[in-house]
Design brief:
There is one protein chain. This protein has one domain. Helix content is about 20%, strand content about 40%. The chain has two helices and 14 strands. The protein has helices spanning about 1-20, 180-200; strands at about 25-30, 40-45, 55-60, 65-75, 80-85, 95-100, 105-115, 120, 130-135, 140-145, 150, 155-160, 160-165, 170. The longest helix is centred in the first third of the chain and has 20 residues, at about 1-20.
Length: about 200
């Protein structure tokens, strides 16, 4: 009984000690989400070395009280957040930086914001796209990856997942010094994808 009591005291002490070191980053989203009282926050401990090192919380203030809409443990190397529309509905979505490689190519977790139904939709596989860029005109995503030879691929959000079209367009020159004609191949590949997507409708 005495040992159990001491153990409980130690656990409480450890919890309080951990809470003192935890750093909470809160971003006011009022100006982004039409001043409707939404908030995004990341909670993390600077000393925490575990893979899922941040707690992401999306909440809304209702009648003076905060209601949590979505919360999830994630990995974020630099604890950065960006707000960019990635599905063309005019509402900025939430990108939480995931990792950066040796060439500073960034990956992100993407949460599509649905204000009408007050919920978020996480896109599986998005965190595998390096330097994602939304092409609003075509409702597609491309990337420009810095590498030994820079390259681009194309993707699309399908439901809650990412579709990879499987094309890789390389930039620069080949082994014989011949220009790989990046711009020309980019346009040809984009046209091919748009045609295939149109035929499926």
């Amino acid at each position: 009984m005495k040992k159990s009591f001491i153990l409980i005291i130690l656990l409480i002490f450890q919890t309080l000690l951990f809470a003192q070191h935890k750093k909470v980053v809160r971003i006011n989203c009022d100006s982004i989400f039409n001043k409707k009282g939404y908030f995004v926050s990341l909670e993390f401990d600077p000393k925490d070395q575990v893979i899922l090192n941040v707690l992401f919380i999306f909440s809304k203030k209702i009648n003076g009280k905060e209601k949590i809409i979505h919360q999830e443990r994630l990995h974020s190397q630099f604890q950065n957040i960006e707000f960019i529309d990635f599905n063309g509905d005019g509402i900025k979505d939430i990108l939480i930086e995931n990792t950066s490689d040796v060439r500073s190519n960034l990956t992100y977790n993407l949460f599509i914001v649905d204000l009408k139904n007050q919920k978020l939709r996480k896109i599986d596989g998005f965190d595998e796209i390096k330097n994602p860029n939304y092409l609003k005109e075509y409702d597609l995503i491309d990337c420009l990856v810095m590498s030994g030879r820079n390259w681009t691929s194309f993707y699309k959000i399908k439901g809650n997942k990412i579709k990879d079209f499987g094309y890789v367009i390389e930039d620069g020159e080949d082994e014989n010094g011949k220009d790989l004609e990046y711009d020309k191949n980019y346009k040809l590949t984009l046209a091919k994808i748009l045609k295939s997507e149109k035929e499926k409708k």
